[in-house]
Amino acid sequence: MKPAIQAITDRIRERSADTRAAYLQRVDRLARRPRGAERMGCANVAHAFAALPGDAKLRVVAERAPNVAIVTAYNDMLSAHQPFEGFPAVIRDEARRHGASAQVAGGVPAMCDGVTQGLPGMELSLFSRDTIAMGTAIALSHDVFDGALMLGICDKIVPGLLIGALHFGHLPTVFVPAGPMSTGLANEDKAKVREQYAQGLVGRDALLAAESAAYHGPGTCTFYGTANSNQMLMEAMGLHVPGAAFVHPHEGLREALTREAVRRVLALGPGADFMPIGRLVDERAIVNAMAALLATGGSTNHLIHWVAVARSAGITIDWSDFAALSAEVPLLARVYPNGAADVNQFQAAGGPGYVIGELLRAGCLHPDVATIAGPGLERYATRPAATEAGAVTWTPVGASGDAAILRPADAPFSPTGGLKLLQGNLGRAVIKVSAVPADRHVVEAPARVFDDQESLQTAFKAGELDRDLVAVVRFQGPHANGMPELHKLTPPLAVLQGKGYRVALVTDGRMSGASGKVPAAIHVSPEALAGGPLAKVRDGDLLRVDADAGTLQALVDPAEWAARTPATITPDQAAANGHNLGRELFAGMRRNARSAEEGAVTWL
Question: What's a GO biological-process term for it (predicted)?
Answer without folding.
Answer: D-gluconate metabolic process
